[in-house]
Design brief:
The chain is mostly beta strands. The protein is built from no helices and seven strands. Strand 5 and strand 6 form a beta hairpin. The model has no long low-confidence stretch (mean pLDDT 86).
Amino acid sequence: MKTINNQVQTGEKVEVMALFNYSQVPCQPLYFRKRGEEEVEITETISERIKFVGNSAKHIFQCVVGKLNYQLEFDATSLAWTLYEN
């Protein structure tokens, strides 16, 4: 696994490997990959919450990769993951 060296563009779409229905947590992101780059392991998930936007739900995860903080959003309607740098 590589650490992230490039800046994250605001609202960048990423591919995510996640576990669903894992223990008491309904979803747990494990890795993400920006387009054309290698997988990056999520060191820790700090918090998760759900935000309702119209008829859709966005699952928001505060994550740590090494010493960097990120926010991953999963749109339950489009099934797309979006990465934000904190």
